């Protein structure tokens, strides 16, 4: 094998590799010899088929296999001998091809950048931290109590009021013709919930049991069923039962109903959950700050191929959003430039975090990966078992959960080295800061990696 370096510019390398015809012939002959030991053909005993006959029948296929093997092995050896670290699969361009001839091909490689020594001790970050006010806990407990309130038939009977739960039958029609999905029996509806078309629930306030009432509404112009969008409709309704809600106090009984020992235990659990929500928001914001600082501090070159692949992924989502009616300001050329800058930033930060993780032996344990699978399963209530089985049978899909865990652990590692100052804020101030950060991220040129 002969290797000649054709060019070396930045992260790009190009080589010409020549594999002697004799090497390929030897590989073909070796495979023919292996085949001859077990080959069967009519008129010949097993293992006694002449090599020449086998070559005539299988030679072309064996040559193709030998060629592919020779290209892969010689490319890998050229890379290994020079200590190169490819960022992408090498691109191979066959120049000379033909049985009995030397194989000549060119290999184009993009390399991973040498990032060098990194020092995070000078990075200064501010982390917003919010305590959980008692009022937030009280409000949450009130919502739990409301969700657990009971219903009872109104006694003595009276017309339906806003806030009541009514059981009704209805049949909807447009221009006197019933439409699919517009009919139901014993449907339970809370008046004032806003679950139905605007105006529907309002017209049922004052309805009485077993007294038919026509509800006239207009479907919104943007209604999901296009055949009904903007159309006037009449629903013939009959209320069969009117029930009112009975409020439940936030007490020990409510706590036990929700699997807590007492109200104090439920109160603590609610406070902890709210605190975790605040902590997630705080963590997200300090991570965004860190990535911004890293992006500004480290400007090493990145492989064009990785940038182009990331840009293509972003742009496909942009095109899909356009098809769904989303508007994007600016002309396409400017927009492509902005999103290519985002792609380059993402690739650079991804390479930097990967380098930090590798050089500091940061890894994802099997337990962490299994916990991630469990979290995915919990996202699909009632289907947890199927999700777990799905991941159990798809190792590659399971491995996709490794990258975000690795990133978070690497970010934690860097945060330990950086100078992070905690600042106490109110929950309102934390939420406002988070909204402002998200609004800034919406601008393409400001977008972060996640």
UniProtKB/TrEMBL annotation:
PROSITE patterns: FKBP_PPIASE. Its EC number is 5.2.1.8. Keywords: Cell cycle, Cell division, Chaperone, Cytoplasm, Isomerase, Rotamase. Residues 163-226 form the PPIase FKBP-type domain. It comes from the Bacteria. SUPFAM superfamilies: FKBP-like, Triger factor/SurA peptide-binding domain-like, Trigger factor ribosome-binding domain. Residues 426-450 are annotated as: Disordered. Residues 426-437 have a biased composition (Basic and acidic residues). One of its GO terms (cellular component) is cytoplasm. Gene3D superfamilies: 3.10.50.40, Trigger factor ribosome-binding domain, Trigger factor, C-terminal domain. It catalyses: [protein]-peptidylproline (omega=180) = [protein]-peptidylproline (omega=0). GO terms for biological process: 'de novo' cotranslational protein folding; cell division; protein transport; protein unfolding. Its main location: cytoplasm. GO terms for molecular function: peptidyl-prolyl cis-trans isomerase activity; protein folding chaperone; ribosome binding. InterPro entries: PPIase_dom_sf, PPIase_FKBP_dom, Trig_fac, Trigger_fac_C, Trigger_fac_C_sf, Trigger_fac_ribosome-bd_bac, Trigger_fac_ribosome-bd_sf, Trigger_fact/SurA_dom_sf. It is found in: Cytoplasm. It holds the Pfam family FKBP_C. It is an enzyme of class 5 (isomerase). Involved in protein export. Acts as a chaperone by maintaining the newly synthesized protein in an open conformation. Functions as a peptidyl-prolyl cis-trans isomerase. Consists of 3 domains; the N-terminus binds the ribosome, the middle domain has PPIase activity, while the C-terminus has intrinsic chaperone activity on its own. NCBIfam families: tig. Belongs to the FKBP-type PPIase family. Tig subfamily. This is Trigger factor. It comes from Enhydrobacter aerosaccus. The gene is tig.
